[in-house]
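Feature request disguised as a bug: please show the residue count (132) next to AP-1 adaptor complex mu subunit Apm1 in the output. Example input:
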Amino acid sequence: MASAVFLLDLKGKPLIARDYRGDIPLTAIDRFMPLLQEREDEDGTSLPVMTENGVTYLHLREKDVYMVALTRKNTNAMTLLQFLHHLSKVFTEYFKTLEEESIRDNFVIIYELLDEMMDYGIPQITEPKILQ
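Example output, currently without the count:
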């Protein structure tokens, strides 16, 4: 179960934020970029799952966008990572490229898709053809 899903630019500034459960303050995302930079290894990559102060950050990077899911629950990390991957596929299907500009241009559709794809933090329909 995800508490919130964020789409961030490369500097960590939120482009889209969707809170599903209300159990994590939205300001928790401010800790993501410093945490990511602390944990990057010498080749510039980091593990997709990080935990700090009881909040688990699960993330994927697609071009110039970070997709981040936050949770406090003891959840299946692979389920949320798979959801983020499907989210990327759906956005690419809808907007041809997933980048900061396409997110800014289509934020209303993105919010509608997020509401359709996840209900109270539980992934639902993630198949692009069904969503269309």
